[in-house]
Amino acid sequence: MASLSEKEAEAYLDARPRYPIDWYKKIAARTLDHKFAWDVGTGNGQAAIGLVEHYENVVATDINEAQLTRAIKHSRISYHHTPKNMSEDEMVALIGGENSMDLIVAAQAVHFFDLTTFYNVAKRVLRKEGGLIAVWVYNDIIISPEIDPIMKRLVDSTLPFRTPIMNLAFDSYKTLPFPFESIGMGSEGKPITLDIPHKLSLKGFLGFLRSWQPAMKAKEQGVELVNEDLITKFEEAWGDENQVKDVYYKAHMIVGKIQEMRCESDDQVSEDSNKDLLLQTEVGRKQERRQPSDEDTRQSKKQNTSEDEGHEAC
Ligand SMILES: C[S@@+](CC[C@H](N)C(=O)[O-])C[C@H]1O[C@@H](n2cnc3c(N)ncnc32)[C@H](O)[C@@H]1O
């Protein structure tokens, strides 16, 4: 913990975390080749920038053209707009063709997608041999023993206002359909849990709360969840307003490959192979192994009718 200099204050205004570089390294170590990666739902390109350290070329796409104009430029990253009406064939051709991608990443994004279209395209462009697809989401933020219970009450209060998209994210991707074969880094219904460390100022935290999508949804229905009373509670619990806190986000990841045709006796997946990623957190060690219920799956399928495509769900 430290006090904010003016420059730091700028940097810490943003409550969105950067993904640990270690993640890209560990996932890249599991793909056979390192020529092409696709960052889908790239936003400002932060995952694309991480991937370009390990792949010769990164294709980064987003449905929101305005996002792309603000994305971080790099000579080996090509950014492309993929409008909603783009056909699967057009998308496959744009990204690089059939069987071309060594890695597909959807960082904090797949819950916004039309999953049928995305998975159809992903299965076509992903390399059948040695190609991987990784999806992750972060949700809970762990700040301090004073702040966390207030945050938990706020999170609970969003329940009646959540969209199916938000539920996928709040549910830590446990109900996300993921039709790929596990490589030991999570699987459908059983994501691995990881920590993302981050430095956060009070100003950044309050800025994040004020634009937090679940609270915005409540506001649309006339309910002000992030009201002045709550803000005061957070300010008091924070303590010194100039203090930058070391916080962390809980992230949930699934990595898979194209399903191989094989007999059941071969179906022993090595959950050991990525122990080092898993063992980064206590939660990872204790992670529950829940299968999605029929109701969960129905709910997550409904999310394709997205009314809030593209922006932070949580
Ligand atoms: C929460 S942002 C995440 C951005 C970035 N991947 C990151 O981790 O910071 C979600 C992104 O997904 C994009 N998105 C939503 N639906 C999409 C779709 N069907 N195809 C491509 N991008 C989409 C949004 O425009 C937005 O930029």
Task: Give an overview of the whole structure.
The structure is a single chain. It is built from 14 helices and nine strands. The protein is of the alpha/beta class and 314 residues long. It has a single domain (2-302), classed as Rossmann fold, CATH 3.40.50.150. Strands 1, 2, 3, 4, 5, 6, 7, 8 and 9 form a nine-stranded mixed β-sheet that branches. Strand 5 (103-107), helix 6 (115-125) and strand 6 form a beta-alpha-beta unit. Helix 5 packs across helix 6. The protein is elongated. 37% of the residues are buried. The structure holds S-adenosylmethionine. The site of S-adenosylmethionine (SAM) has 22 residues, from helix 3 and strand 3. S-adenosylmethionine (SAM) binds next to helix 3 and strand 3.
Q: Number of DSSP strands?
A: 9
Quaternary status: single chain
Radius of gyration: 20 Å
Mean pLDDT: 85
Helix-strand string: EHHEHEHEHEHEHHEEHHHEHHH
Count of folded domains: 1
Strand content: 15-25%
CATH topology: Rossmann fold
Task: Determine the fraction of residues in helical runs and give it as a percent range.
Answer: 25-40%
- Overall shape: elongated
For CATH, the homologous superfamily is named as Vaccinia Virus protein VP39
The main pleated sheet reads as: 9 strands, mixed
Q: End-to-end distance, in Å?
A: 25 Å
State the low-pLDDT regions, or none. 1-13, 269-275, 278-314
Which CATH first-tier class would you pick? Alpha Beta
- Give the second-level CATH assignment, the architecture: 3-Layer(aba) Sandwich
Hetero groups: S-adenosylmethionine
Number of helices: 14
Query: Structural class of the helix and strand makeup?
Result: alpha/beta
